[in-house]
Here is the input.
Amino acid sequence: MTNATGKSMSLNRLRLFGLLPTWITIGVLMIGPLLIMAAVSLMEANVYGGVHLRFDVSSYVQILFDKNLFDETEFNPAYLIIILRSFMLALGATILALLIGFPAAYYIARQPDHRKNLLVFLITIPFWTNLLVRTFAWVIILGRGGFMDQVGSFLNIIGPDESINLMYTNTAILIGLVYSYLPLMVLPLYSSMEKMDVRLLEAGADLYANRFELIRRIILPLTMPGIIGGSILVFVPCLGAFIAPDLLGGGKKLMLGSLVQLQFATSRNWPFGAAIAMMLLAIVVIALMLNARAARRHAAYEQGGAEVTHG
Amino acid sequence: MLKNVAVDIQQVTKIYGAGNAAVTAVNDVTLQIYDNEFLTLLGPSGCGKTTLLRMIAGFEDMTKGHIKLFGEEIESLPPNQRPVNTVFQHYALFPHLSVYENVAFGLRRLKKSEAEIDRRCKEVLALTQMEALAERRPSQMSGGQQQRVALARALAPNPKVLLLDEPLSALDLKLRQAMRDELKQLQQKTGITFIFVTHDQEEALAMSDRIVVISEGRAQQVGTPQEVYEAPANRFVANFIGEANMLEARCKTAGKSATFALSAGGTLKMSASDAAAGDPVTIMIRPEKVKVLSKTGNKPTGSALRMDAKVVEQTYLGSVTHLDLACDGQVLKACINQDAHTNFASGDEVVVEIPADNCRVLRS
Amino acid sequence: MASNLRKSKFRPIWDFPGFGGLTVGFFAFLYVPILVLVAYSFNGSKFAMVWSEFSWRWYLKLLENDDIHSAAINSLIVAFFAAPAATIMATLAALVMVRGGPFRSRAFTAGLITLPLMVPEIVTAVATLIFFALLNINLGLINIILAHTVFCIPFAYMPIRAALEAMDPGLEVAAQDLYADRWDAFRHVTLPLLTPGIMSGFMLAFVISIDDFIITLMVAGAGSTTLPVYIYSMIRTGVTPEVNAVSTLLLAVSVILVSVYWLLSSANRKGEAIG
Here is the structure.
């Protein structure tokens, strides 16, 4: 590494060496498959599984339309219902997660440091455990004769042989979804809240704001990036969720995730499954772009106001 | 003329923690602050001045004592119900709101009409010369501009008392000096009681109607800038504001025409002191009052005490020259104007004249 | 000392009443289901949901279950290959991203690394399945290892990158001032200081691999079942208390690993104060 160009050349080579494994791995095993899946969604289904290599948009058409007995194309609401259910449940789960997580995130952010770290750790533990197992816990709780029913009969809310019977309902799936992704809402919220300067709340109170106004006028606007970030981190996985509708919905209340899985298990309609997956992917991309735009706007006024600038 | 008491502080105490770890931040402070006055709480870092301010604002509760605002007790009121507004040390401007919306914030919370809000905001922005920047965000402004916005925001709801927590400390020197005059004029123009906190004694002297010197949670002295400078109540005040020469002495004769024997030698005759004979006291004299004369041919002047001294150090500061003089075993500080006749250098033998009228007796 | 103390309790303005209680409720919601699961795994009764008495029997039954053994072993094998592979790649990438100076593909690389986190798991699972099927790659466990490595990379990357960023670059400069060449500086300064971060990244990648379900479900061929997939099939065939027991074990493994990771990174944080 004697001269300038020699140095930069070997630096380039080092960079390449460092990044190439990651590029190859993710490129070949992630981007490649995604592209192939996109292609498959435009192919013709093979009844025995797999595809015929022929161009065919019927899988996308199938989302909305079906051929009836007279071989006419007519509108098929079945999949639309699934899409709608997925959206509503994902939205509901996001809102619930926000409501449950907001006070906790705020409270923890205001704790002294040592307690803060411990509490954040306690939030993340469930996140690192197996999602299947955690959702299964709700099967035990909500199932017929399960924990909830036992508590219910213990408290005399229901009779000894009755059941609250939440299992296999949309509510059960909702609970499962909220439970699965709650930490993903709280962590970005917490991060936003921690960054907020408490003196701004003092200033607000000094200027006659009561506690509701403090939340509405100061905390909410300033923690909006956290709220949006957390919402996306919950909404997107909920849309594509598989475990919750499968275990808690009994496979009868399908969501997009379980619909996709079905195409590769029993239904054997790969292009259709790929088409739905592409739809999910598109929604994610849109959500991410919205998030990026909101984050940029907030960064513009992130720096000033509370801190000293020189001038 | 009977003055209206704006803030009545009675035996206010604040203790943090308990038992062995208890820290007394404010210790039994009693103080009356008048309407339409510019009062400064002056003291070194950690002396409790900011804590006292925060208790008036309502951000801290009091361990003991009472605070009344124009006769009404306010201790039980949360900060958002006290007609008192604060200019915070680091401004605490709302980053997500424009300057206009920052200024309008308090008025909106008070549910004023839109017309009233607009009128008042424009008025206050004009007062602080910020009209042109009304639509900007705080992050787009310099420190001095942010400070004015903080000021405008606190003035907009027309508080009865304005609290200022070291608002100038983050500004550079020239800006600070300019803001001093502006703040003083603002107070006179609006007639609002200003309670100003600072550790900078020059600021306090320049701006205040009265100064409260605070140390270790206690009010050491309350008085006008002249009173506090010329007649400090104790050693702390004398040392904190300006510089002071401290001479140990003992009272020889008490009464209307008291005499004091300096430990360094010599006697000082002073009028009216309440020291009793035999009491140890400290005689304080400001450096600029110490006369330095050349050794040859000078007539003694009145009841001044004259001592021989030698110039140890000379520091030329442009407008004045500081001299450190060794005199009978102690060092005296003098502050003189150099001119053609007086040009003292290190090592010179001189005569020091201490006029009794400019001395002050302090308790030991 | 308290002669005229305030009667009502003073509340600093940023302290909202009731939020503490809501936080307790939050943690209860988060942990009660897990506790219920663990509690029921000790249920002596044959019916999973009716409590009879405390018993170890289901855990003992696990010891006899060969299928669970092989599933668990498969999980470990996959993790033991995928996690290190991901960690090595993540370390190299982190070194380049944090210390490599400006270069054109930086944004692209950053996006690439976080891609597995952004794409919904079901989509990744399906894409990978199609990929392996159409290209006729049927290597049993190796398929799973390849799939796991991909999504383990971002999880290993995050703590390593954080550790690198927290490291004072002046240390390497100081080393060079003391006659170390680039490689020496890396070996004797950067690497030792980075090791806790690398360990943390490895732990996270390992946990993620052990816990993965959806992707493994779709990608696994016959005979290469991992533990979570096996648990799923147990649930499908009927809820027995055995499921509770094996679930609790899996939970315990994850919790232990994550706790080790956390302790490691707290120690790391304390160590930074000096550097």
